[in-house]
Design a protein that fits this description.
The protein is mostly helical and 327 residues long. The chain has helices at residues 2-39, 51-70, 74-85, 90-114, 120-143, 146-166, 180-185, 207-224, 229-239, 244-268, 274-297, 300-322, and strands at residues 188-192, 199-203. 50% of the residues are buried.
Length: 327
């Protein structure tokens, strides 16, 4: 009881910080739209050169805070928001998006590993297949016209919203019997839930189906540059039966491996601009470290509603922009 009492003030403080972060991110998203629209009427030179890098840094800082506890990866929010509200070509946004997702995963990784929320045995087999398919996805994405990718991105983001709304995630799913493959690979573990103080033993099942699913996840991660945390977490939690927090933590490790593979394709094709990538990555890494701490004390539902709202707005804008209905 004493431990719970001592955690309550810090939890309340974290919740307050998260609410402020969400409000600031929403304000930035809403303000970016008019600024971008104004750029189509007036010359871009009315803004100083440092405005867009600074706006990228601040936006990515708040994206990093909310992305890690939600387990969706920074790229899932970065690409639709930056691609929809900033005046950059979508190829450059996707290239930076993979680096951003990679940065958020690497920044949060050490904290999650120390807390037992990341499983190497669970992540590595899945990441191996997703890495290979993400390269094919990146090559396909760069070969398609930008409006096609923009439209498909809008549909994918709206699909993510529908998935997040429909999925009934289980905090601690019950797996009665692991399958043979997971037993052979030794995929099981134990972690201490920071919110309840409970020690949780876990194991997984349906591993072969999970491996096949991660092949498709890798293709989408490379094609759209959004990472794949939005798909990783439901696959690990709902399909394979890993606890929700272990799924979110392991998703970050999978992202770091998959996104690094696809990012090389964008780098080789010259689709990574330092002016876009550097402030985005720095802001994301700083925000992700705060988000990794929030994962220990927050329930996923606290941040889930805010993420869904942002993705819904960004997905509609990306879809309309790809169809030429929104400049």
């Amino acid at each position: 009881m004493d431990d719970v009492a001592t955690r309550t003030p810090s939890t309340a403080a974290f919740l307050k910080q998260l609410q402020w972060a969400g409000m600031m991110l929403a304000i930035l998203v809403l303000l970016a739209g008019p600024v971008h629209a104004a750029g189509n009427v007036a010359p871009a030179s009315i803004l100083p050169w440092w405005f867009w890098p600074l706006a990228l840094f601040v936006t990515c800082f708040f994206i990093g805070i909310v992305a890690v506890p939600a387990g969706i990866g920074g790229g899932t929010l970065f690409v639709p928001i930056i691609g929809g509200f900033f005046p950059f070509h979508l190829d450059f946004v996707r290239g930076a998006g993979l680096l951003v997702a990679l940065a958020s995963a690497l920044a949060a990784g050490p904290l999650l590993l120390r807390g037992g929320l990341t499983s190497l045995r669970l992540a590595l087999p899945l990441a191996l297949l997703a890495c290979m398919s993400s390269i094919a996805g990146a090559l396909l994405g760069l070969a398609l016209p930008a409006p096609v990718i923009q439209t498909a991105l809008g549909l994918i983001v709206l699909g993510i919203v529908a998935l997040m709304l429909a999925a009934k995630k289980s905090e601690f799913p019950h797996v009665a019997q692991p399958d043979r493959l997971s037993s052979a690979l030794g995929i099981h573990g134990v972690f201490i839930d920071g919110a309840s103080g409970r020690s949780i033993d876990w194991q997984v099942h349906r591993t072969p189906l999970g491996l096949v699913l991660f092949l498709g996840i890798g293709v989408m991660a490379g094609m759209f540059g959004i990472g794949a945390g939005w798909a990783n977490v439901p696959a690990l939690n709902l399909l394979m039966g890993a606890p929700l927090k272990v799924s979110a933590g392991t998703s970050g490790l999978v992202l770091s491996l998959v996104d690094s593979s696809a990012a090389w394709v964008y780098l080789n094709r010259g689709a990574v601009l330092p002016m876009i990538a550097v402030p985005s990555v720095v802001g994301m890494m700083l925000g992700a470290r705060i988000g990794a701490r929030l994962l220990h004390v927050l329930k996923g539902s606290v941040i889930r509603k805010m993420v869904i709202t942002l993705l819904l707005f960004a997905g509609i804008r990306a879809l309309f922009k790809g169809l030429g209905l929104w400049v």
